[in-house]
Amino acid sequence: MDYVLVHGTTQSTAGWQRLTESLRRRGHRVHSVDLPTDQPDLLAADYARVAAEQIGDSVREPVVVAHSGAGLLLPRIAQALRANRLVWLAAFVPDFTHGRSLLDEVREQGSAMFFDEWRSLTEPPTADPAVATYFLFHDCDLNTLRWALPTLRLFYPAAAYAESPHPGSVAPSTFVLPTGDRTLHPEWMRAAARDRLGIEPIEIDGGHCPHVSRPEVVADAIT
Question: Is 125 exposed, middle or buried (0-12, 13-18, 19+ CB in 10 A)?
């Protein structure tokens, strides 16, 4: 099976290393997409085009995994790659029914989506290792934490955040919900999986980056 991994808003593609190794040990082929972090005016369709150009013809009907804020881009990227399954890893699920953008939802119900401590940040969590550890890597052992901190990288797709989600069908999905998340409320993710995707999430122990702290558990869940 081919897996395509789409990084979130706080890590570079290096953050996928441990999950990549876990999947390859199971005999799967793994590819990662490196989205541009210096073009905040790009829309979801633009990021999908970038992903398709990077992956090319090297995969057929892959499973596309998106972490965190990349869930906003997942439907378009998956469509461009002709994915046969989507995996939402502690990820935002767009409001397909009402067409609200992520920014619209944050304005209307931000406290239900995100923890207050996360919403009160005045600097990106990638700017301070202590903040990143608290929100992203608090469930990591010391050696994993030392490995994870250099993978931090800010990705802020501003135009896509303000964009209404693209209507249309979504491929069969899996939602992996880390119950110890300190960014997105687990209750919100649970409801989003049920109401927006029509599925029950796979709940695992761990924080917002379980592909870092629990790669084997995540690999089990998505295979």
Answer: buried
